[in-house]
Amino acid sequence: MAFLDDFFAALFGALGPVGSLVALLVIFAIDAALFPALPEAWILITYTYQPETMDPVGWAAILLAVAVAGDLLGTSLLYAAVRRLLIQDRHMPRWLESGMRRWTEFLVVRDERVILLNRVAPVVPFVGAFIAALRWSYPRSMAFVAVGGLAKYAALLYLVFVIGVSYDIHTARTITLVLVVVVIALSLGGSWWYRRRRVRSAGKS
Hints:
The structure is a single chain. The protein is mainly alpha-helical and 205 residues long. It has one domain. The chain is 81% helix and 0% strand. It has eight helices and no strands. It is elongated. The mean pLDDT is 84.
């Protein structure tokens, strides 16, 4: 862990507070729009390398704002691209749209509330594309993106805050890295379990 500690210390030292926030914004936007970028890992790691001039609560609040902004930005960019290039120009393959609709039929909820479910068990990738293809309400969808992000990342940051109060900085960072692995594993496991259960339920009906 000492190697990782030195690596991240050098990385965040080189980026500085502003650079770290910009990098976090980009990571969350990429995760929301293109491919998984492990945002849970980066927001927690960034928190543990807070600037000396910032207090923990203030730093956490800034990170939360950046995380939500990144989620909204990435989701909106993907939504706009799919809506403009595929939906409005009528280039959306029918098999793809039909497949997206069938996929949501396996879920407990089939509208914008899927976005909240996604925070617990990622069952719908590329949320922005689903918002556009399934004609979900954009304002309502963005509200769910923001609320879900705030709830999830506030809870994670609170856990790391408690860890930081209870242990010295190096031990706290080690525990945080373990927490990151656990959160990602639980998220992937929950997604697999939920999809498997819904497919089985659909097969019995």
